[in-house]
Design brief:
The complex is a heterodimer of chains A (353) and B (345). Chain A is an all-alpha fold and 353 residues long. Chain A is built from 13 helices and 2 strands. Chain A has a single domain, classed as Orthogonal Bundle (ABC transporter involved in vitamin B12 uptake, BtuC), CATH 1.10.3470. In chain A, a hairpin with a 3-residue loop joins strand 1 and strand 2 (22-25). The relative contact order of chain A is 0.16. With 345 residues, chain B is mostly helical. Chain B has one domain (60-334): ABC transporter involved in vitamin B12 uptake, BtuC, CATH 1.10.3470. Helices cover 74% and strands 0% of the residues of chain B. Chain B has helices at 19-42, 50-58, 63-70, 73-97, 109-124, 129-152, 159-183, 185-195, 204-231, 235-240, 245-267, 273-285, 289-314, 322-340. In chain B, helix 4 (73-97) crosses helix 13 and helix 5 (109-124) packs across helix 11 (245-267). Chain B starts with 18 loop residues before the first helix and ends in a 5-residue tail after the last helix. Classes of the chains: A mainly alpha (353), B mainly alpha (345). Chain B: Its main location: membrane. Chain B: It is a multi-pass membrane protein. Chain B: This is Iron complex transport system permease protein. Chain B: The chain crosses the membrane at residues 23-43, 76-96, 108-126, 133-153, 159-184, 205-233, 253-281, 293-314, 320-338.
Chain lengths: 353, 345
Amino acid sequence: MSAPARTARTAAPPLLRLGGAVALPVRPRPALLGLALLAGLAVASVLTLTVGRLGIPLAELPAALAGTADPQAAFVLERLRGPRLAVAVGAGFALGTAGALFQSVARNPLGSPDVIGVGAGAGAGAALFGLLLPGILPGPAGAVLGGAAAALLVYLATGTGFRDPGKLIIAGIGVAAMSTAFTHYVVYVVARDRASVLQAYLNGSLSARSWEHALTIGVALALLLPCAAALSTRMAIAEMGDDIADGLGARPRATRAWAVALSVALSAAAVAVAGPIAFIALTAPNIAKRLSGGHGAHAFTGGLTGALLLVLADIAAQHSPIGDRLPVGVFTMGIGGVYLGYLLVREWRKGAL
Amino acid sequence: MDAAATLPRGRGGVRRPGPARRALAAVGGAALLAAAVLASLVLGGRETGLGDLAGVLAGTADPYVATVIESRYPRTALAVAAGAALAVAGTLMQAITRNPLAEPGLLGINMGAAAAIVTGTAFLGLRGGTASVWLALPGAVAAGLLVYALGAAGARSGLVRLVLTGAVVSAVLSAYIQAVTLSLPESFDSYRYWVVGSLAGRDFGVLWSMLPFTLAGCLLAVLLAPALNALALGDEAAVSVGVNVPLVRGGGLIAATLLSAAATAAVGPIAFVGLAVPHIVRAVVGADLRAQIWYGLLAGPVLLLAADVIGRVVVRPQELMVGVVAAFAGAPVLLYAVRRTKEGM
């Protein structure tokens, strides 16, 4: 599924020198892509803040950001759209990075932390603590606990930890099936209104987010992204195959285990603030990979793509003519499915599949 | 991505069990099925014994007891039919995709059935068990055929492509289901009762509406089994012994679609029966698909009945739905199997 033809062009990349001690290789295409994604994200953010009945007029936006605007604009920025946008960017970035790490490890473009049951486990946790045993833990904390428990169960069930992607995915199917069955059971036994609220949460929702949510995901990213960056070189080597990676001293099995653990932690953080949002972790790294046309984990560009996708999906969710305030997860699922279809059709045209 | 690489080698693939072992398995399977049927008839929220059952059959029992036991006839019969359908569908899917993890859900069948039920209850105002079946069946078949048409069209059709198409169609249908159910509470209500997977409250009408499809699918499976055996050797080998590969594969997929559509329409999406039964059967009777299908017809009902009976007994006087029990009984088996396989599968 890869494109080995590109490896022919392996001239040394230009270096970005910071004094005499630091020399970072600059690969032009990923760097340009990163800038383009950042620009897109900025445009989408401005759109989020300005569009719609409650939107802040574009002319007033600088004043609002500086804190000198009229109270209505300040209210929209500080209470309604601002935190929502921040959570969307943070959760999207976390999901995109998580998916990029996982796909690199699984060597499979269809891998994502959801495959090993993190999303389903989070749903079961939210159902248990939100509806069946209310009052012990808040729902989002229950979701994180559920997601972590699912990942732990998968870790224990494989007998080899996170080292073997094949086993990981199969064990994930089993754990996800149990979690989903439990969630369906809870949705079945509780009253309809409460079940409906849970159902909306299970799709992943960005409505009524506060700055605390934004802070949560921000802290999680600040802790986890440096780890991902530290791991990325080794992961690029591990993608070459176990034998070569062993020879180069990259310890591929340990690298994979760490990458999966990071991926799970990142998606758990996203679940905590926005619920299990479908498909971002799956599609964002694929899009980033396609745009940058290279190999490697694409953790950073994948994260940016994820943030952009989630912000765009949230604009659609806020202003869609259909449905009454549908959760953003419904849109990511629909858009993600269609995109996956497009991807497949393209591959078929080329005869690659 | 190489489907052939995940084919289970060694265990079951090489060993050929003798006729004695197969006969023993047949007798044991039939005995288990009889025991499961009896258990399903006498165990439940209201305790009854085998004596009561005998009384009902002889027509001498207390009318109340008779009502209780007779109310368990339809769900028992339905469990047998749905279990058999799921088992054969799973066997076919695993043989055709040469992937031991293949399941009918991969073809988008569950989501097709669910989407049709949601559409029917939300926009057509339909209600009730039999209506669900008549909605779910065409939905499931349509989704399965759509996936097959998209995934297998063109010169270079492949199994990976088929499975990916199934994932795409499932995702889009799932988004549609969520959008509708979250907007319209009434359709959410009927959807959540169906999606959990339950045998309770089903009448014979549900059975009669799914039975023709089950029988047709089973017949097709039995007819295709020898050709599917050849297909297991690889496409080139199958062609060289005179098998029309696209025809056999297409027929097998249609049979699997019919079977799992019928079962899913009748009892909701049930996890793991279609996945687990082929593994159990393969371990006992070996890789020959002709045998696998016949023994699957015994093992599938046993498993589904056992899950249903357990669900009725563990939280008496309430009931756990059979879909929940199947997931919680099946998943640990899968996890155990994963643990035992060698690294780098």
